[in-house]
């Protein structure tokens, strides 16, 4: 059952987007599982996208055990940009998110979480904010750790067909970490490339512009 939350007026939503755009620091967290066996799987779409952005920006990652993440930093449009890929397993992502938020003094409104989403078609993306986790264990963990769901997220489609066409829980848990076919890999690459472009748009032009551009 979905939890109820107070309605947010359109003016409040606009202010939230403006505040996110004006934040002096932006923390982008790409969710996934550690280890080579998970590198090119559906569940690692978020981490793949963040790594793709880091490669585009020419900044290398460094492992930070105390933050439970690999991180890299740079600047863009006068803003500090922190890219992070948690080294925890997916369902413990919040442990890293909370540590990163505290260490870099970045509030939830200046955090973007990037993750896979089985309710979107493979290779597509959608940018959302202040929305429920949709059953995603990594996102749930982040919400619990940060004490709020009012966080911007880039959702990367890894299946599609809608919730009523999802496989059962056991089959789903297996599917998200299964190696991709060549065709699926090409589609996921399109999605992660698009997600990386959207993240750069958020950094340079703000969340509202990115949502208008990519939520079509």
Task: Name the CATH homologous superfamily.
Answer: Peptidyl-tRNA hydrolase
Low-confidence stretches: 1-12
Largest sheet, spatial ordering of strands: 2-3-4-1-5-7-6
Number of strands: 7
Look at the structure and give the mean pLDDT. Answer: 85
Number of domains: 1
Shape, principal axes of CA atoms: globular
Rg of Cα set:
16 Å
Classify the helix fraction into a percent range.
40-55%
Here the CATH topology equals Rossmann fold
Q: How does the helix and strand content classify structurally? A: alpha/beta
Beta content: 15-25%
CATH architecture: 3-Layer(aba) Sandwich
CATH class: Alpha Beta
N/C terminus separation: 28 Å
Largest sheet: 7 strands, mixed
Q: How many DSSP H or I helices?
A: 7
Task: Report the order of strands and helices.
Answer: HEHEEEHEEHEHHH
């Amino acid at each position: 059952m979905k939890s109820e939350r107070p309605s947010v007026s359109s003016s409040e939503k606009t202010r939230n987007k403006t505040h996110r755009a004006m934040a002096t620091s932006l923390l982008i967290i790409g969710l996934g599982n550690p280890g080579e066996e998970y590198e090119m799987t559906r569940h690692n779409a978020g981490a793949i996208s963040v790594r793709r952005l880091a490669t585009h920006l020419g900044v290398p990652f460094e492992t930070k055990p105390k933050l439970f993440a690999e991180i890299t930093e740079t600047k863009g449009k006068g803003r500090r940009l922190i890219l992070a890929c948690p080294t925890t397993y997916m369902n413990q992502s919040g442990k890293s998110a909370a540590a990163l938020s505290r260490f870099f003094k970045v509030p939830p409104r200046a955090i973007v979480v990037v993750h896979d989403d089985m309710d979107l078609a493979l290779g597509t993306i959608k940018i959302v904010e202040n929305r429920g986790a949709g059953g995603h264990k990594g996102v749930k963990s982040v919400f619990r750790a940060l004490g709020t769901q009012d966080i911007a997220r880039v959702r990367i489609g890894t299946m599609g067909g809608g919730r009523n066409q999802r496989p059962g829980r056991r089959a789903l848990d297996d599917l998200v970490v299964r190696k991709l076919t060549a065709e699926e890999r090409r589609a996921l690459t399109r999605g992660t490339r698009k997600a990386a472009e959207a993240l750069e748009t958020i950094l340079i032009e703000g969340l509202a512009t990115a949502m208008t551009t990519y939520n079509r």
